[in-house]
Every structure is written in structure tokens, then in C-alpha cells.
Amino acid sequence: MSAHRRLELLRWAAGTGAWIVEDDYDSEFRYTTRPLACLQGMEVEAHGPDDSRVLYVGTFSKALCPALRIGYLVAPLALVDRFVVAKAAADRATASVEQAALAEFIESGDFARHLRRARVLYAERQQALVTAVRTHLSEWLDARPAPAGLHLVVSLRESLTGRGITDHDVALAARARGINAPSLSSRTMTPRSAAVPRHEALMLGYAAFDAETLDAAARRLGDAIGDATCDCR
To answer: Which of 2, 30, 52, 164 could pair covalently with 148 via S-S, beta carbons 3.0-4.6 A apart?
Structure first.
């Protein structure tokens, strides 16, 4: 969301008494501009922590490694006591040693240096994926660089949708060939109807793979699309 839209959302929450849950799990990975200010920070700067309507949720699983399993919540002051009680009731096994090591990693500056290296690496891998799709799949898929994140949303072209092939069809065919390419439509809250056109697209992850692996996967995805378009499927 743009800064203007974020301010509008904050005003709406303040006016209605609503809470905003801001899941900011991959904001560190923005490639074309500096990271945008989070809603929580914008509101606290403007009004102070006492009037915050934002619950800011983050994790180190994306920035470091999933096995670390350390996330965090920046809660408004009015809710802190409730979350302390809820945490105690839900889970008393907080990983104290891992948190201490992570804190030292952050305070030393190594975490910031890691993020800078990771941004460069992931930007290169995103471009490798875009190149692979445009090289091997341009007849069927439209891939465009994204300014942030760890996935690309790749749209199906008319050559597929015009034949009645859906992103769900392609996702199933890809899975049969060992490729995880979830359909975007499976993640929508809007029921399919004639009044609301459905965006047929795939979500392709790239952060964990080098350029050679991404190129090979694009070729296999092309084979999967061939399976999906086969009249005998």
C-alpha cells in the first residue's frame, strides 16, 4: 500500500475503533526503493504508543531460517497485559537461548549486513526467474519483476485462459511434475462469478533457488502446462 493509503487506513481504524493486524514478514526484502514505513511506526510517531490501533507481527523465519521459529508481536499498550496472559496460557516453552543468540546477532550489526547481502541475492534470483519464464514460457505466462517479496505472481495469458485453462489446472499439472506453483485463485476470498473477473495466475517462489535451478524448473513447468492443455487430460 502507498503511504497515502496507509494513512487512510489508520484514520479509518481510529474512527471506527478497529484493530489492524500488520503482518510484515518480508518487508526487509524490497529491491527498487527503501522499505516503506510500517503502519505501526507511522501511527506511534504521529500519536504515540497509547493510542495505537496496530498490532505489528513479524518473524525471523524468512530473514534467517525457518528452523529458528522466532516471531514477535509489537502490541498496543492497551493490549500488552492480555497478550502476556494469552502467551502464558498457550505456550510456556519460549526458546530463551535462541532468542539471546539472535539478540546478540542483531546488536552486533551482523543481521543488518546479512539483510543487505540477502537483498542483493534475492533480487538476482528474482531476475533469473523472470528471465527463465520469458525465455521458456512467454507463450503462456506473463512474468514481470516485483518491487518486493520472495514470490512472483505470474499471470496466465489468453493462450491458456481463452481455451478454458485455469490457474488451478496448471497448478495441479505442475504438482504432478514435482513443482510447487500454487494458483492465485485458491487464495482469494472472492467467490468466482461473472461479475468479478478472476485473475488467473501462479505464485512462484525464487528465494531458495539459484539461476540454474530456476531455469530447469521453468522448463518443467512448460511440460506441465503442456499436460494441462492436452485434450486427453
So the answer is: 30
| pTM confidence score | 0.82
Three-state secondary structure string covering 85-132: HHHHHHCCCCCHHHHHHHHHHHHCCHHHHHHHHHHHHHHHHHHHHHHH
Instruction: Calculate the CA 153 to chain-centre distance.
Output: 10
Q: Which residues contact 27 (CB under 8 A, 6 or more apart)?
A: 35, 36, 38, 148
What CA–CA distance (Å, rounded) separates 61 from 64? 6
Tell me the per-residue pLDDT of 104-122, one tens digit each, with 9 for 90 and over. 999 999 999 999 999 999 9
The amino acid sitting at 56 is Y
- List of domains in the chain: 3-108 (3.40.640.10), 118-229 (3.90.1150.10)
